[in-house]
Design a protein that fits this description.
The chain has 305 residues and is of the alpha/beta class. The chain has two domains: 109 residues, no CATH class; 178 residues, Uracil-DNA Glycosylase, subunit E, CATH 3.40.470. Helices cover 51% and strands 10% of the residues. It is built from 14 helices and eight strands. Strands 3-5-4-6-8-7 form a six-stranded mixed beta sheet, sandwiched between helices. A hairpin with a 5-residue loop joins strand 1 and strand 2. Helix 1 runs antiparallel to helix 2, helix 2 packs antiparallel against helix 5 and helix 5 crosses helix 10. The longest helix has 23 residues. It binds uracil (URA). The site of uracil has 13 residues, from helix 9. Uracil binds next to helix 9.
Length: 305
């Protein structure tokens, strides 16, 4: 059985479990993930796998920006290890082996998310190390790697999910609609956006504004972990489920977890709603406001944090 049919089988099993009500799945050392994002990740792997033999990167449902890009540029296919027209069966086997190695490496990264190498002491060094990162497929479609922005010794660090279209274009986190709301909420508690640090769990934009999948999160984990170490904030505010569950796997969903102080290693974490959720669910604003008021207690009140 080839990888593609194996992945397809797994995907079908997950879809059928999903129909029976399973919503989250625990993958080894990683936190519980929404089943949908796992299935999206598998779908992507299947597309890449099919691309090996068919010369295109197909998606099962609708063509994504990425598949169109791959189809129009065979040179790019070669660069990412997809051979558009394998000359003979030996070449085809070589490409398959290469692709299987890539997939094995991806799974190895999921199993061992902590494989960050030597200790880096500054954000600029960290950025240099990852600015051309191609550890996962998001590196191929991003316009800019959105590393993070703000003070280098911030009282508070905000962590979102991943860049959207505006962030991808501008190379800065939270500059679109959700970002404008976040900026307003920060200034409503008397802090300037420039006086905090803002970043995301994944640094490259997931296409079609989908959630980042477990493999992508796993590839980016060493960056966020080192950013936290270097910045050493008094408080980390996680925006929504993905950053909260990535740092603290055992928390319940954000609706229950929000507003309750948690611990990630030696750091204090305050989970709250993601601003995009607030834009869609205005009725959650008062709860988010309650959470935001706690930020100043933990950052500027000398008896805490
Ligand atoms: N949503 C995020 O999670 N991060 C951004 O940077 C923008 C929107």
């Amino acid at each position: 059985m080839n990888y593609s049919s194996l992945l397809l089988q797994i995907e079908n099993q997950l879809l059928s479990l999903n129909k029976k009500g399973l919503k989250y799945i625990n993958i080894g050392a990683l936190p519980d993930f929404e089943l949908k994002s796992v299935i999206d990740g598998l779908e992507e792997m299947i597309s890449i796998e099919n691309g090996i033999s068919e010369g295109t990167c197909k998606t099962k449902n609708k063509p994504s920006e990425k598949s169109e890009k791959y189809e129009e540029s065979p040179k790019e296919n070669t660069e990412i290890g997809i051979n558009p027209e394998p000359a003979d069966i030996t070449d085809q086997n070589k490409v398959l082996n290469l692709k299987q190695q890539n997939i094995t490496q991806t799974f190895a990264q999921i199993a061992k998310p902590q494989d960050s190498a030597k200790k880096i002491n500054s954000l600029s060094e960290l950025f240099e190390k990852y600015k051309a990162c191609q550890k996962c497929a998001l590196g191929k479609t991003r316009k800019n790697l959105v590393f993070g922005r703000g003070l280098s010794n911030p009282p508070v660090m905000f962590i979102g999910e991943g860049p959207g279209a505006d962030e991808d274009t501008q190379g800065e986190p939270f500059v679109g609609r959700a970002g404008r709301l976040l900026t307003k909420m920060i200034s409503a508690i008397g802090i300037e956006r420039d006086d905090v640090y803002i970043t995301n769990i994944v640094k490259c934009r997931p296409p079609d504004n989908r959630n980042p999948n477990p493999a992508e999160i796993s590839c980016c984990l060493p960056i966020i972990k080192q950013q936290i170490e270097i910045l050493n904030p008094k408080l980390i505010v996680t925006l929504g489920n993905i950053p909260t569950k990535t740092l603290i796997p055992d928390v319940p969903g954000i609706t229950k977890a929000r507003g309750k102080i948690k611990q990630y290693e030696k750091w204090t974490v305050l989970p709250t709603f993601h601003p995009s959720y607030l834009l869609r669910n205005r009725s959650a604003m008062p709860q988010a406001w309650e959470d935001f008021k706690k930020i100043t207690e933990f950052t500027f009140n000398s008896t805490q944090g």
